[in-house]
Amino acid sequence: MTDPLVEAARAVQQRAYAPYSRFRVGCAVEADDGRVFVGCNVENASYGLTICAERSAVCAAVAAGARALRRAVVVSDTDPPAAPCGACRQVLREFGRELSVLGVGPAGTTTWTMAELLPSAFGPEQLA
Ligand code: THU
Question: How many CA atoms lie within 13 A of 46 on its CB side?
Answer without folding.
Answer: 1
